[in-house]
Amino acid sequence: MDVRIDESWKARLQDEFEKEYFRKLTGFVREAYRCGTVYPPAKLIFHAFDRCPFDRVKVVIVGQDPYHEPGQAHGLCFSVNDRVQIPPSLVNIYKEIENDLGIPIPPSGNLERWARQGVLLLNATLTVQAHRAASHQGKGWETFTDAVIRHLAEEREHLVFLLWGAYAQRKGEGIDANKHLILKSPHPSPLSAHRGFFGNKHFSQANAYLLAHGEKPIEW
Length: 220
Prior knowledge:
The strands form two sheets. Strands 3-2-5-6 form a four-stranded parallel beta sheet. A two-stranded antiparallel sheet has the order 1-4. By secondary structure, the chain is an alpha/beta fold. It is globular. The chain has helices at 7-17, 20-35, 47-51, 88-101, 112-116, 141-155, 166-171, 202-212, and strands spanning 38-39, 59-63, 119-123, 128-129, 160-164, 181-185.
């Protein structure tokens, strides 16, 4: 199956594209876009991969599924388009960066600047029906993104995995902590951020680890 995705990822994920679950997933997603409103726009489903090639990944942030209201989702977890109101979880991420590193909260919630520096902003589920959170879960995306994480964990060394909340932490259960830095905390959602996301200092820890292994730190 020919999937339009960055070539560095395509070379590693081609086996997934040929599997039966992915064929069924593709059929489901095509029908969903044909029959209703689905986010992100179809051309941006693999945007996270296109903005962050396999060999450039330094940090992996795992989200759950895309934002499901108009104009928000553009294929990067926690990120929204320019001139869109910054969602509450991202506000809290920005607050922790400000507390941790002293970086003022920016006016935009667009995180493409992170992706260009090697931050893979990976949602576990890559599509969602408008106004229906989690509506495309259990259709095969989770199997696909498990394969993405597995390739990174096995083929790369000294990556930083930021796993916020129980869902993301389950996605990271197979990562070798001897090869990579795994940082866990509660989710930045307003429902849980005060239970340990605030004060986790993940951003300074990530940069210290990257520097220690000869990598340029992320300009958060």
